[in-house]
Amino acid sequence: xxxxxxxxxxxxxxxxxxxxxxxxxxxxxxxxxxxxxxxxxxxxxxxxxxxxxxxxxxxxxxxxxxxxxxxxxxxxxxxxxxxxxxxxxxxxxxxxxxxxxxxxxxxxxxxxxxxxxxxxxxxxxxxxxxxxxxxxxxxxxxxxxxxxxxxxxxxxxxxxxxxxxxxxxx
Length: 170
Ligand code: SF4
Fold this sequence. Notes:
By secondary structure, the chain is α+β, with helices and mostly antiparallel strands. The chain contains four helices and eleven strands; from the N terminus they run H-E-E-H-E-E-E-E-E-H-E-E-H-E-E.
């Protein structure tokens, strides 16, 4: 969804957003219930995920990927990769199974003082910490609305606002 501002090749080479330190576990991918059901059992990808049901006002049984048990050291800088990341090929999931959250990263929809805002995760190595004009234009010209619509139907993707995440106003 961000291919106009973020090339597939730079994402493929980076994979930053597919690996998680302990302090980033709040960002592990969120999957809709039907995909949780599919990926929790033997499936076409040959990889079974472990999920925890997320708090969701709609009680939808959406799931967050559980990676906590995969750390091997006590080093807070240790990163564990998403279960569905292949070191050579990148994300192994087909578009229909890939979490919406992953498709819009580094954008996030967040609740700031009761209002929904689109914010930029400031740690993406390719996009940087400040929204560039092209990114702002993309959000204002349709992508922001698309994210808002999805979040209304899938409120579990809405995160609490965090300081330091620049807001892109629609
Ligand atoms: S689901 Fe795919 S895109 Fe999302 S974090 Fe895992 S490997 Fe990366």
